[in-house]
Amino acid sequence: MTVIIPESSTFTSNPFLLIVILIVLLQLRERKIKIWSLIFFPAFMLLISLYLIYNEILGYYSFILILVGFLVGIVLGLVIGRFMEVKVDEKDGALILKGSLIAVFLWISIILLKIYGENILNQGIIAVDLLTSIFLMMTVGAMISRRAYIYRKYLKHRELKNPN
Fold first, then answer.
1. Phi, psi of 16 (to 5 degrees)
2. 30: left (phi over 0), alpha (psi -120 to 50) or beta
3. 118: confidence class by pLDDT, cuts 50, 70, 90
4. Helix crossing, 35-53 with 14-26: angle to 10°?
5. How far is the first Cα of the chain from the last one, in angstroms, to the nearest whole number?
6. Which of 61, 100, 126, 134 is most buried (CB neighbours < 10 A)?
7. What residues pair up with 32 in beta bridges, in sequence order?
8. Tens-digit pLDDT profile for residues 7-42
């Protein structure tokens, strides 16, 4: 089995960034979603994020800091998820969800800063690449745990509607 790895310029090209930003912005509208999309979108964002931070996770110190950022993001996502209202369509029982503007803006800002801002901001105690990688993994961790929490709320709502 051959694994094809795209060139690094693919993930930093303007068309690719435009597609990612468009996909993220589409998360802002209230929409009926399929349960599989609760998993697909965070998995897609996790893969992109891991690709963007690959160079930073090679050292032990950086790996630990990024892992801590991811875990903090998971906790934040659970807290945010507790305050989100999960709606279920009365007709077909579909899950209705609307993304958070703050989460989307933060994720896009961090990616743009990571790609375009490293030369400008690379002066300080902690390297900007590492700092943005930590924040990037925080937002992905928050997205993953928030969606897992939403799915849990959805299952509870379904159980209350259909106690079998």
1. -65, -45
2. beta
3. low
4. 150
5. 46
6. 134
7. 96
8. 555 555 677 777 777 777 776 677 777 778 788 888
Q: Are 78 and 152 in contact (CB under 8 A)?
A: no
H-type helices in 5-116, by residue range? 8-12, 14-26, 35-53, 60-83, 101-116
Task: Find, among 16, 79, 54, 60, the residue nearest to 136 by Cα.
Answer: 54
Q: Which two tokens stand for residue 162?
A: 């259909």
Which pair of structure tokens corresponds to residue 133? 């990688």
Kindly tell me if the per-residue pLDDT of 44 is higher than 70. Answer: yes
- Kindly state the tokens that stand for 164: 């079998």
Length of the chain: 164
Structure tokens at 51: 């690709």
- Are 98 and 30 in contact by the 8 Å Cβ rule? The answer is yes
Between the CA of residue 59 and those of 18, 53, 55, 65, 112, what are the distances in Å? 31, 12, 9, 10, 23
- Number of neighbours of residue 35 by Cβ within 10 angstroms: 12
Structure-block tokens of residue 43: 């998995």
